[in-house]
Please model this.
Amino acid sequence: MLKPVNSESTLPDNRFSERELSWLDFNQRVLELAEDETIPLLERVHYLSIFASNLDEFFMVRVASLKRRIATGIAVPSASGQDPQEVIEEIASRNRELQTRHAEVFRNVINPQLDKVGIDILHWSELTAEEKQELDSFYEQQIFPVLTPLAVDPAHPFPYISGLSLNLAVVLRNPKNNSEHFARVKVPPLLPRFVRIPDAEKNRFVPIEDIIGENLDELFPGMEIVQHHAFRVTRNEDLEVDEEETDNLLNQLEKELLRRRFGPPVRLEVAEDIDPQVLSILQRELNIDSVDVYHLPEPLDLSELTEIAFMRMPELHFDSHPITTNRYLQSAEDEPADIFGSLRDRDVLVHHPYESFATSVQAFLEQAANDPQVLAIKQTLYRTSGDSPIIDALIQAAESGKQVLAVVEIKARFDEQNNITWAKKLESAGVHVVYGLVGLKTHCKLSLVIRQETGGLRRYCHIGTGNYNPKTARFYEDLGLLTADDTVGEDLTKLFNKLSGFSATSEYESILTSPVGIREGLTERIQREAEIAKSGKQARIRLKMNSLVDEQIIDELYLASQAGVNIEILVRGMCALIPGVEGLSENIRVRSILGRYLEHSRIFAFDNDGDPEVFIGSADMMHRNLDRRVEAIVRLGQADHINELHEVMDLAMSDEIAAWDLNSDSQWIRSTNGPDGQLADYQDRLMQRTLEKKKLR
Model:
């Protein structure tokens, strides 16, 4: 039962869910998709892979950070009131259940179903003699030359085990003196994890570690193979760079990336039948506690199931969605679209991947690069693809004499090395590359194009919710505003000047920014809705985001709910708010939707007594986004765009849509069936809606 902090407070002290456990709830929802019999089989395999890779990052960053704070004595109870050590123990307990469930879903449900459709993932013992011979030949030619056996003895210290690598722990016996020895063999990460059996009638695969394990005698000639077991280590791979203490951020980050490889272990995954003595060796040498050891059925590391999930078998995948172009950016036959002309007529709101990134945002920048009337391009880059046409456009623009600024965030987690590479390539082409503001990640998604026109200079802008990455734009759901509005252009000019130069203060008319602006602006609007409700009028707030864990924002939403504001929240991942609690949050509803696309857009909508305000942008409701990052959200200026996003939220909150609802016990309850049968898929409905709107023009 929730209890007040004191007699003067209206908010209870246990009003927040534990954020780390909320993240595990999110990953459980991914697992539930893998368990869903109504979803095509290879898509379920993909969800198994996503679950595993999500968990890897969770341990590398979230658990690692928590352990580091505990070890250094700086950990304090979380907003939920839980002691950090208690959180670690609960994470271990919950994760043990989830990882075991995940492995068993693959072994007992998915793998047998794959077998029925002609896809076999087999152990060595299940192969025919002929197949074993084929794979022995493959081993000799493709695997054996790459392997490096590492012995452990007084002359060979225990080898370094790289993070997320798959390994075999091998126990050997010397027949000459009957002495036992320990060795480690690393599974080559650049070879296929699941090896296709040559010339097999069906799609038959064997985990590569099985092939290596059956041929260990060739690695250790003259020795007897007593036993071998698979294991995998997850290390702390969070970065620590003190920007205040370094003269060259690029050089310091490159050094830190090298150091990250040697972070302390935070999780040890082992085969469920591992010998206790072998496990004891691993724990001792890796200095890892039993609570951080996870015994799992083989094969370990199901993140590599993507090799199976992406097989070209259309009948086992979702029906494809057509590629569409926003109706206001469509080109005439055999002629490229005049994007600048379209934006002079009206703002354009694009919704990816329902509407193509390539024919909107990418085309906007490519057209700017090729247009002789364009004088300058300014661009933020957080994550982009390895063969990015965005990068190519910026390089082309710079080489043609245009002034090009790229604000590259080289601290984008796990994309650091990629971004360093592209930063150097951009610089060599003459692009002005900066790394944003000291102490802050630049996470905003902004493009600014300055064009010479008959009436003078005109600024064209894009403000989005997602990265400038054409590859991820195909399966990340995001929004973007393309506009030639003077006010937006002036605001982005100020913001880019702040990012590349020196500016103590900046005031904006159409955008809110962080670290100063978004928290204040959203708080003001939440409080305004509360005042409207107190006056007896209808008041409503609608929010869509990846995560909601910022305590101040949550408290403001609680107070607004107490004032009578109707609040609807669509959140993909973590949510520390507890909805539906009488006297606290009975006017708040929280939903989560997961599907073929990664829900990634952020929407902040306020009814404002009939004068609605709707913002889109890059910021989630997390401390880091509001206080430690450069973020930007923009207010939509056209009524049809405001209505369009309300239609999106109407659909998401509809009882006809399959979704998870968060209850007052912080439990996510999934709804897949209604009185009339199976509930509709939200993303399919959005695709239908996009196609219908396109026909209207």
In short: Residues 339-502 form a domain with the Endonuclease; Chain A fold (CATH 3.30.870.10). The chain has three domains: 19-316, 339-502, 513-696. The longest helix spans residues 84-116.
